Amino acid sequence: MLSVEVRDLWKVYKNKVEALKGVTFSVNSGEVFSLLGPNGAGKSTTIKVISCVLKPTKGTVKVLDHDVPGECNTVRSLIGIVPQEFQGFSDLTVEENVSYFASLYNRKVDVEDVLERLDLIKYKDKKFKELSGGYKRRVAIACALTGGSKVIFLDEPTVGLDPKSRRSLWEIIKGLRESGTTVILTTHYLDEAQTLSDRVAIIFDGKIVKTGTPEDIMREFKKESLEEAYLALMESLGEV
Amino acid sequence: MMKRILLTTKAVIKDNLSSRATWFFIIFFPLFLTLIFALGFGAGTQVHQYVVVNNQQLGKYINQSQLFTAIYGTNEREAMLRGYIFVNVTNGKVNIYYPQNDKYLVPSLEAIITEYYDKSSPVIFNEHQSSANAYYVYVVSGMIGVIALSNGVFGVTGVASGYYRDKLIDRLAASPLRSYEWVVSLVIYEIVITLISTVPILLLSIVFGVIPIVGVAFLGFLVISTLMFSGLGAIIFGLTPKDKLFVANVAANVITIPLMFLSTAFFEIDAFPSILRPLVEYQPVSVIDAVIRDVMVYGQVPSLFDVFYIVLLTLAFIAVGSKLMKLRETD
Question: FRET pair for A148, CA 20 to 30 Å: which of A126, A184, B177, B284?
Answer without folding.
Answer: A126
